[in-house]
Amino acid sequence: MIARLNGILIEKTPPQVLIDCAGVGYEVEVPMSTFYNLPEIGAKVQLLTYMVVREDAQLLYGFGSEQEKSTFKQLLKVNGIGAKSALSILSGVSIEDLINAVNLQEVAMLTRIPGIGKKTAERLLLELKDKFSINGVNGVGIAQPKSATSDILNALLALGYNDKEALATIKLLPKDLSVSEGIRQSLKLLSK
Q: What domain count does the chain have?
């Protein structure tokens, strides 16, 4: 298994790059988030890779960070998501946005990604629900700062509001609120 490439960037043609490693050229497909952060042609580059071996091909997928690679591997575990779809998801949304979409169960955000329909988005949300978390270390190894959003949501649910009401209210709140202020403002919005 090829886990990392360190060499000279020879070609950049989205979504593929060609890296010369000691005289051997490796063709690697990368998400657009990695592609935009690549150096100029002729510069040294290092990519973490994930190799997929199929009956008809051996494909390398490259990532600029361990978080992207871990998320890619987590997406491959979802029924019906292949490497191309996983790459498309990582190209279409940031990892933070994907985690938020999963935690807030936002189908609409995922359906905006090319190639992801409503049923696929719903399956993603269902199967990734316990794999990502808003706070702590989640299933893809990304340490997220503790977010007040999660606590506010849990408080509203504990007070008897349904998921739909609570999520809609949280979307209306300004960012960077404390938990107590977020609950207070949410209750004001819900009482109208």
A: 3
